[in-house]
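User: Design a sequence. Structure:
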């Protein structure tokens, strides 16, 4: 028996929501596992079958990572100096999560702001005055496609010569340059959607070029620039390879700090890693909540035809 149009629509809707639900579970499971592991005691990290929801939640992982609490106490009877009765140096936390959080906030914030600011200026020039041809735009994007490992050796030598190795300034400059192509391309797509007639009308009414940009173009593309800002912020916030190889001791970012909880000496401390990962994720979630009203409009900008 042939299905009616309403039955086809209902079937399609059910199948669509079923697929979206499955996809949501796949995407959300790593977040669930990360948060769950951060509250698990040590014995449940490697247990089999795996413990999905612990019956013995603990804040010990957060205390060790973020409050710099000693991993062992005197009551544990481990790593105690027999002469002084104090905990030995090997039980003290050598990690610096708060320093890494401060560095990541400064580096990612400055690099993202500079990339969006200069990228939007270049994008306006490309969109309205064709200062770069289509071929040049693709060449600009190709700069972002170069594997970072190829650039590490020459950049490291150059940074050492000019004193930017292991500095916040050095990472900000590098993140800014590597993020600029994305900023230009994304900003241009939003500026292209603004009708030129609106700018021409403002100029006919006596507005200067800068006033037209500030009062006509910018309010219309603001949501798109916010979406661009969040996208680039996520990229710079989670960048690992460049931060690892261009920083030594003075500059430490959160991804590099996260990798220090797994090694040949301390083993794989999944609970500590999960607790730090939650702390890394919360700032991005917080920023997303602040600018959420702009994101929906920014990501859908240009989908509705004028």
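Assistant: Done.
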């Amino acid at each position: 028996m042939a299905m009616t149009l309403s039955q086809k629509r209902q079937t399609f809707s059910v199948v669509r929501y079923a697929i979206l639900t499955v996809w949501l579970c796949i995407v959300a499971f790593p977040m669930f596992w990360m948060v769950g592991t951060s509250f698990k005691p040590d014995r449940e990290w490697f247990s089999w079958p795996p413990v999905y929801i612990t019956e013995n939640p603990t804040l010990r992982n957060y205390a060790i990572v973020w409050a710099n609490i000693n991993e062992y106490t005197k009551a544990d009877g481990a790593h105690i100096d027999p002469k002084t009765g104090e905990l030995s140096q090997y039980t003290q936390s050598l990690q610096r999560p708060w320093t890494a959080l401060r560095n990541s906030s400064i580096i990612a914030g400055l690099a993202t702001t500079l990339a969006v600011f200069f990228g939007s200026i270049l994008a306006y020039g490309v969109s309205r005055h064709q200062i770069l041809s289509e071929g040049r735009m693709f060449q600009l994007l190709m700069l972002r496609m170069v594997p970072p490992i190829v650039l590490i050796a020459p950049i490291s030598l150059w940074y050492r010569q000019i004193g930017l190795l292991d500095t916040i300034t050095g990472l900000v400059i590098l993140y800014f340059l590597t993020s600029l192509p994305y900023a230009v391309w994304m900003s241009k797509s939003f500026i292209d959607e603004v009708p030129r007639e609106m700018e021409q009308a403002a100029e006919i009414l006596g507005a200067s070029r800068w006033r037209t940009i500030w009062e006509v173009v910018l309010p219309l593309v603001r949501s798109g620039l916010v979406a661009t800002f969040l996208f680039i912020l996520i990229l710079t916030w989670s960048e690992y390879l460049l931060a690892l190889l261009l920083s030594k001791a003075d500059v430490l970012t959160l991804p590099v700090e996260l990798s220090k909880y797994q090694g040949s000496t301390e083993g794989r401390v999944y609970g500590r890693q999960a607790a730090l990962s939650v702390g890394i994720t919360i700032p991005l979630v917080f920023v997303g909540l602040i600018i959420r009203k702009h994101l929906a409009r920014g990501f859908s900008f240009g989908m509705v035809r004028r």
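Residues 5-69 form one domain. Confidence is low (pLDDT under 50) at residues 73-93, 302-306.
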